[in-house]
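Provenance and format

Records in this collection were gathered into a single text stream. Each protein contributes a sequence line and a token line. The two records reproduced below are adjacent in the stream.
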Amino acid sequence: FWEPSLSVTSIQPGTYYVIVETEPSEEDVAVTLTATGAAGEAPSGLTSGVTATGVFAEGDEMTSYQFNVTTPGAVITIQLASDAEDTDFDLQAGTAPDQVDWSTYTIGSDDLLTFIAPVAGQYYIGVRSNDYTGEYALTATEGDLAPALNFDVPTWGNVKAGARAVFALDVTEPGDFLTIVLIGPADEAIDLDLNISGYSADGYTISGVSGSSVGASEIVSMPLLEAGLYEIAVNGQYSDADSDFILLARRQNPNTLAGQWAIDATATSQYGDDGYAALQTTGAPNTPYAGDYDTAWASEEAEAGEQTLELTYEHAVVPYAVNIYENYNPGAVVSIEAFDAANNEWVILWEGDAQAVEERMRVFSPTLETVDFATDSIRIVLDTDAVDGWNEIDAVELAGRP
């Protein structure tokens, strides 16, 4: 006979639901539920900038506090200090009781914890004794909004020894790949770490990643799965000196990371066997200026009706972008197609009307239809009657994922 039990601590006021599950049985099962408990004491409240004191006696493990944050995105600093000798107290903080979102693990009892509050509301701060005794002083402060970290702009900063410097990165459009580069002093004695933590609009943790190699330079990457506030922290927790540093944030669309140029090409007609041939569209663009150049492909006649250019690539990808480099009389493209080898057919990625454009030279990159197959063959269809003169193409880039 088995009597299962469940014990929880540090619960907050509210309605709770108990669910009883049984193994499959051919008979009804009678159960008796008994709930017992005792009212505890609510954590002491902290006022911004006002120091609270406490003491750990033998056997004490944790003292908990509540701290109300009024402004989302504000920098929160928590300072712990103690004059007791031979002690090692640590800090932790979270958005819920017994939840640790931020913490310190430095040796000694003079700790500084800095983080960005993702939402306004109640935060829970804990001081851990680590089996030591003695008095301590605790000060929590709500500061200004965290400094913003912008993409592709080097940002200078300074982190105090044993502390964290934090920056806010606001992500409104997820899906890209995020890379953060930290460059610190070349001094081998300085050790800086890099941490990324993402939070949703409700304050829930989205994802996080850390770099903790030896030295003061790190690079950390992660996919931006959701929109939200991302805390970028430079951690000097294991450094004995204040340090200047540079941060650089970059984002990359994974669908466009692997752009490639054609390795072979054929066309319904071509003006020459070398210059103006279809093979001139292979490789990267090499026509430097707008105009009629034999480094690009041109059909045999200027107004030759429908003309097609078929290009082959080294790697098959699910097409995300096709970038057509039109160097002379652009605007004749009416269709972009991908070859589906499994079904032996060409599938339209984009189609539209041909018309002359103001630009003398352009890169045509229309939004493509989504397909579920990888291809290494792209076909460009032109209506050469619609745009006067030869409609020349220098190169065609294919971007996508394997």
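Adjacent record:
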Amino acid sequence: MKLEREDLKKYTILIVDDETEILDPLKSILKHKFKDVYTASNGEEGFESFVAHTPDLVITDIRMPKMNGLDMAEKIKAKDPLLPIIISSAFNETDLLLRAIDIGICQYLLKPIEIDKLFTVVEHCIKHKFLEDKLEVKNQELKSR
């Protein structure tokens, strides 16, 4: 099942990365496909932005100042266990990957990020949220009968 452009426009994304040369182009690319794209430059700001905006998807780097991406993801998952989170990292370390799996990360992308791969992964993660939303609508319809 492929999501249509109007389906994607309902969702918001939070991107967390301390490298502006990655953060700015990602925001620029994704803002054309999604309702809103929020950004943060470290894990602390990312968690604050998550609380303030409740995005539908988070894309985060691992190694950042103040709070790393895995610690931030763990805090986010404690509040919203179903929220899809994508980790992007230049590091292909087994311990980081295993921790990401334990936290419940949706996908793990290696940097440099290939745009086609990014869209595929983002759509895959959003698709689950889309189906959950459709199921919730159907459940509400059944309850109101």
